[in-house]
Design brief:
With 210 residues, the protein is an alpha+beta fold. Helices cover 41% and strands 17% of the residues.
């Protein structure tokens, strides 16, 4: 599988997501949408309406296992193409699975490993679970109107909840670089760390590589 690098940064309150695969670079601008609008729009997105399309793709993958006919994969690619435009968070799914589909030739050795149909079929239900987990985090921990319980106690209670009720936070690699060199030229970068910016227009880029 290819290595993908995804970058997210803030500049003047606007969000930008960049994904890079080899020499190809994709940039998704979330301009005029202050953080965390993208997160909130994801939480309230109607993911259940996509279940029929994902089930169709699931059946297409199983048909490909048997026939090795590349035509079976067309509805899968069409699903990915349509789904990625619905929200920036869905772009990585398109990048990853489009790359898998390119490798799915009639003579590929292990199509079930390359294209695991259950992984794709469960995308709507997994995302719906994440939505509920994030909403619960907002409602029980981050809600500023809760004044009768200390914040640390709310966090502890959230962490002690059953696993399916809490969001599974994962560590991520973070490095620092210029977002706008002209705006931040007074700052110095040493290795992957930048000195604290004196300009409010210079923000951190979060970098994750799989």
């Amino acid at each position: 599988m290819s290595d993908f690098q995804c970058k997210f940064y803030l500049l003047d309150g606007a969000e930008t997501l960049e994904c890079k695969e080899g020499n190809a670079e994709y940039v998704i601008k979330l301009a005029d949408r202050p953080f965390p609008d993208s997160l909130l729009s994801f939480v309230y997105y109607d993911i259940n309406s996509w279940e029929p399309r994902f089930h169709e793709a699931d059946r297409a993958l199983m048909e490909f296992y048997q026939s090795r006919d590349a035509k079976c994969l067309k509805p899968v690619q069409k699903l990915l193409d349509d789904f990625k435009d619905e929200h920036p968070y869905f772009f990585y799914l398109w990048l990853d699975w489009s790359n898998r589909l390119k490798q799915a030739t009639p003579d590929c050795k292990n199509p079930t490993k390359l294209l695991p149909h259950k992984e794709l079929a469960h995308v709507p239900s997994n995302l719906a679970t994440m939505q509920q987990q994030i909403l619960r985090l907002f409602q029980t921990v981050l809600d500023a109107s809760i004044t009768d319980m200390d914040f640390s106690i709310r966090v502890q209670a959230y962490e002690q909840a059953p696993s399916l009720q809490k969001f599974d936070f994962q560590p991520m690699k973070i490095s620092f670089e210029f977002v706008d060199e002209k705006q931040c030229s007074a700052n110095k970068i040493t290795g992957n760390a930048a000195t604290k910016s004196s300009s409010p227009r210079c923000f951190i880029r979060k970098i994750c590589t799989t």
